[in-house]
């Protein structure tokens, strides 16, 4: 029920209640019973309290539905809907990690933007196709994933966290927030199965070797 409809119901119920109670005060030909005006007023107040409680319940329900709608997309769906993550999405598809990150989770993904991937391609002097064709592509991607939900407010300076890859990430909050050597540019992009933080550098695990 919408707030507008609930308000109309509120007014309508009170009007009907008032009419009914006033009518009850009238003397009937068959009975001489009269309803005390004070009692009538108390009963109207009770009806009003019941309707107000219903209005409160409707508002709570609407807020809950809004929250569900805001976070109904999973991590992969959110990344697919953001053009800044197009290379990341292609990499997830190539490494067959889409289904994993569509799972229940929760996961925390430090998501490199397209600019971050382009900087890596320039540094390695390879094309996007060559990067996506790397046999260890999955190890790079899982190095960006923590198998729990970590919001920005949960992070502490010097904190470490083990990734799905197995190697740890280190956080530096002494200045602008950093994870390893990457700046965290956008935080707390909430998903139904975790959270995404955008970063400006692709994180490379120590065991990665570029294959020709």
From TrEMBL:
<dbReference type="InterPro" id="IPR036378">
    <property type="entry name" value="FAS1_dom_sf"/>
</dbReference>
<feature type="compositionally biased region" description="Acidic residues">
    <location>
        <begin position="27"/>
        <end position="68"/>
    </location>
</feature>
<feature type="region of interest" description="Disordered">
    <location>
        <begin position="26"/>
        <end position="68"/>
    </location>
</feature>
<feature type="domain" description="FAS1">
    <location>
        <begin position="72"/>
        <end position="203"/>
    </location>
</feature>
<dbReference type="GO" id="GO:0005615">
    <property type="term" value="C:extracellular space"/>
</dbReference>
<dbReference type="InterPro" id="IPR050904">
    <property type="entry name" value="Adhesion/Biosynth-related"/>
</dbReference>
<dbReference type="Pfam" id="PF02469">
    <property type="entry name" value="Fasciclin"/>
</dbReference>
<dbReference type="InterPro" id="IPR000782">
    <property type="entry name" value="FAS1_domain"/>
</dbReference>
<protein>
    <submittedName>
        <fullName>Uncaracterized surface protein containing fasciclin (FAS1) repeats</fullName>
    </submittedName>
</protein>
